[in-house]
Amino acid sequence: MHIYKLERIWITAGVAMLAFFLAVLATAAIVDGYVPNSRIQTIDPAKISETPPFDHPGLRKTGDKAYEAYYVAQIFQFTPRKLTIPVGSRVTFYITSADVEHGFSIPETGVNAMVTPGWVSSVSHTFKSAGKYLLICNEYCGGGHQLMASEVDVQ
Ligand code: CUA
After folding, report:
1. pTM for this prediction
2. What is the pLDDT of residues 20-32, one digit of tens each?
């Protein structure tokens, strides 16, 4: 089979780029220990109800307009069902799943995390405007997936 010189150059360049990107990725993963930043902490999904702070899901005040919110996702609901915070609050959400893969998304805020059993996902957001924000599951998790929602009320 005849391969033109220019073709050979482009194939070589393409393969070299691919190898370079893979090397960067492998270096970050192995040497620097990078993992997806939403998954930093493990938890036993069978023992969520007895593992603090997930044994009492909900809001914790950590400072002036600073909060931590602990959520348990489970077919087909989030606990807590509703969060009420003052406008301007910065909330760090910690979410874990008691059963299957769920999503954790507050549209229009950038809050979006996958919730995997065995892991604690984390995402932060500052709520600058008042309103009722819908918090939804955006990973298909079964027959009641479309019912899986919660509310963040920013007052
Ligand atoms: Cu939980 Cu979809």
Report:
1. 0.77
2. 999 998 988 887 7
Could you read off the pLDDT of 62-85 as tens digits, one per residue?
A: 999 999 999 999 999 999 999 999
102 lines ligand 1 (CB under 6 A): yes
Q: Are 67 and 60 in contact (CB under 8 A)?
A: yes
Which residue pairs, CB below 8 angstroms and at least 24 apart, start in 77-83? 77/147, 77/148, 77/150, 78/104, 78/135, 78/137, 78/148, 78/149, 78/150, 80/150, 81/150, 81/151, 82/150, 82/151, 82/152, 82/153, 83/58, 83/59, 83/150, 83/151, 83/152, 83/153
Residue nearest atom 1 in ligand 1 by C-alpha distance: 102
137 lines ligand 1 (CB under 6 A): yes
Q: Which amino acid is at 113?
A: A
CB 98 within 8 A of CB 117: yes
